[in-house]
Amino acid sequence: MAAAPIPTEPDSPERVLVQCISRAQSRMDLWVEFINSVGAQRMAEIGVYRGDFAAFVLQHCPSLTTYYMIDPWRHLNDWNKPANHDDSVLGAYLEEVKAKTGFAAAKRIILRGKTTEVIDQITDGDLDLAYIDGDHTLKGITIDLIRVYPKVRVGGFVCGDDFTRSVWEHKTSFEPTLVFPFAVHFAEAVGATIFALPYSQFCIQKTTGQQFSFVDLTGHYDDLTLRNQFAPQELLKLIAAERFPRLMRAVRKLLLR
Prior knowledge:
- It is a single chain.
- By secondary structure, this protein is of the alpha/beta class.
- The protein folds into 2 domains: 13-225, Rossmann fold; 227-257, no CATH class.
- The protein contains 9 helices and 8 strands.
- Residues 1-8 have low confidence and may be disordered.
């Protein structure tokens, strides 16, 4: 990937993000760099799962004073994704989270429930940053962005994971992942700037009176439409590759000869 030009405006979010990208070797590195660069103190993570991200951020971001952890940690009958395990497994994951983040118990606030069930325990405008890594279906990202956005102060950031160019992050038997392009459309609706970042990440800055802008710092997000990804012939290729992987590999080898 070609290095993105560094903007000339000092301390602009774009400049900060470009500098953070240059220093990061992973998704977690990127957000630690960014949180420390902007001095975020109050943060929420939506979709904590087993707590690896939370533990890493809390360990490496000394500016954080409050870290909300939002996750149902229970089976959801209307969520068709691979991480939707049964209650016993997800309950064990909650205990794992508590153990991994016990060193920061004075900073963490665990809110067990879906976003719609617990988000109003956070005051509007209270957060410097929210990180969304929960239900990546169209329903999930719609609910999370709409309900979380008011909780972030003006000048703060709503960021997230699984901003994948392809909606088929998992097998076609699962719901598509639609963080991209929905997050872009959401940013346009609220008149915000959204940045596409490496490691399938995004960042929206919440401001007042700003016009919508989509800044692609990866060069990969040139098409916001979904038509081609849902075209019958493309779906047939995906399904065939899932059901007959050896046959499809052999066909591809023959076509490349």
